[in-house]
Known about the structure:
Shape: globular
Number of strands: 6
Helix content: 25-40%
CATH class: Alpha Beta
Bound molecules: adenosine-5'-triphosphate
Structural class: alpha/beta
Strand order of the largest sheet: 3-2-1-4-5-6
Distance between the termini: 47 Å
Largest sheet: 6 strands, parallel
Radius of gyration: 17 Å
Mean pLDDT: 93
Amino acid sequence: MSSRPRIGLLGGTFDPPHWGHLWLAELARGQLKLDNVLFLPVGEPVHKTDRQITAVPHRLQMVSLAIQNNPHFVLDTTDCDRSGPHTTVTLLPLLRQAYPNANFWLIVGGDSLRDLPTWSHPEQLIKLCRLAVLPRPGTEIDWALLETAVPGSKTAVDMLSGPTLSISATAIRHWVRQGHEPSYLLPTAVSDYIQQHHLYHQEQAAL
Ligand code: ATP
């Protein structure tokens, strides 16, 4: 039996991290028998330039708080420590240096898989790792279209099965901006952090 470490990679803006992320990571860990899941906050997301992203130190703190009770979940700052642009295809070789023998699974929601053709060099990416995907409510995958756009993508995917959550960071930001508390949408420690630092109100605090 192979003793190569099995590592899941969950990249994201995590603005803020929520139960959808943690559930996705835990489902992948259990179903793919992963040793660890690395949470990789992105510094400057290439896909999200239409709004101001919360400062990296805040997002790192929130991810730390979100994963603090799971010994298999690890915060990895490789992506936010490097200069942009932050594409996944250029991140994988950096992680390979740190984990030379590992088998990698890039863990994503169905919306990210649907958008794979718009990623940088997706055909190279699927040679560097497998994809672990949980459907996301409201997102349909057109497998034929995906395979045409990125040949080989269909066989590079391990679909995860289990309940799905329609929570998104966008919905949480809007909820807080409307004056509500985000309790029960994310871990209490993250919710407390958001309140303490007045995140997602009109003016975002700089750390
Ligand atoms: P935003 O609403 O700001 O776009 P988000 O909630 O989608 O944020 P990201 O940090 O962009 O969160 O997501 C990182 C990864 O987690 C992506 O692959 C995304 O598809 C996945 N993800 C986030 N929420 C869920 C969810 N509820 N179910 C399945 N996958 C999810």
